[in-house]
Inverse folding.
């Protein structure tokens, strides 16, 4: 299953951002600390050129702290950006962003610093903007796709924020990234199959966080397969239909919601090493697709 979700306003916002980039002094990209790779916009490196960039790993209170540190080191060394690991309940740390912006950009006295702030849906961008502005400017919520238009916001400190709608990219070639975005809530639940996403999540948890699974669901031993794990959890939580069969949709929603809330523990679904491997695999897949397309074109001729 290749997950695709790209509302029209995101396409429009992408065009608007390209049009105003010449006016932008600095870019702030809000990432989900649980999926730093999948939540970053792959077009940003090309679009921003040599403009300074701050990558904020938000929701770090839900992420694995060791992996967060790995990502900060990787992003700063490999992409030449500044990183901050934040969470919405750290308003004082968030209010340090304007000072960091001024430190990274030399602005003439009397001029305003224009910063573009961007991030995928439901990453917490609006909450950060409201804290920076000291008032409610951007709507917040747990549903993706609330901000629909490019907004200009004066947050004081000589900074104008250009707020873009939460954007996903048109084609999620890496299917694992699509699953991770769905797992963390960046893609609307109405656009996904919960049992499919839960199976992906359960497979990941069995491999990377087995101890947390045992503790949360009070399991002495873990099964070897994700389907068996979800069935065990379903029986334990009473997610049963007539005849004693496990209700797959109900148990799937429980596991996904507990991951999103951090009830299962602090977890990160990606490491830099994992992403290097996946990108290498993706290049092979793309090359194979290109070869098939070329062969098909030659046959038509």
């Amino acid at each position: 299953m290749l997950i695709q979700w790209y509302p029209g306003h995101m396409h429009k916002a992408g065009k608007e951002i390209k049009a105003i980039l010449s006016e932008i002094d600095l870019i702030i990209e809000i990432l989900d600390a649980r999926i730093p790779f999948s939540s970053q916009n792959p077009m940003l490196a090309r679009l921003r050129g040599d403009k300074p960039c701050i990558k904020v790993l938000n929701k770090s209170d839900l992420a694995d702290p060791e992996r967060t540190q790995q990502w900060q080191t990787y992003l700063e060394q490999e992409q030449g950006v500044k990183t901050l690991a934040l969470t919405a309940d750290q308003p004082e740390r968030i209010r340090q962003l304007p000072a960091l912006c001024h430190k990274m950009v030399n602005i003439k006295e009397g001029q305003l610093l224009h910063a573009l702030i961007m991030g995928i849906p439901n990453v917490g961008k609006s909450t950060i903007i409201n804290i920076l502005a000291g008032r409610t400017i951007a709507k917040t919520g747990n549903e993706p796709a609330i901000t629909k238009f490019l907004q200009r916001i004066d947050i004081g400190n000589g900074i104008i924020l250009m707020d873009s709608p939460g954007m996903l990219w048109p084609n999620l070639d890496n299917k694992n990234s699509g699953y991770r975005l769905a797992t963390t809530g960046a893609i609307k639940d109405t656009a996904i199959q919960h049992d499919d996403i839960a199976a992906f999540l359960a497979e990941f948890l069995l491999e990377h966080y087995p101890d947390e699974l045992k503790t949360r669901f009070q399991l002495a031993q873990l099964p070897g397969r994700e389907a068996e794990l979800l069935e065990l959890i379903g029986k334990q939580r009473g997610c049963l239909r007539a005849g004693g069969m496990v209700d797959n949709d109900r148990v799937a929603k429980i596991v996904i919601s507990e991951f999103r809330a951090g009830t299962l523990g602090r977890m990160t679904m990606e490491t830099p090493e994992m992403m290097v491997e996946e990108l290498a695999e993706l290049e092979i897949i793309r090359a194979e697709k290109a070869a098939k397309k070329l062969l098909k074109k030659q046959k038509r001729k």
Observations:
- Residues 140-147 have pLDDT under 50 and may be disordered.
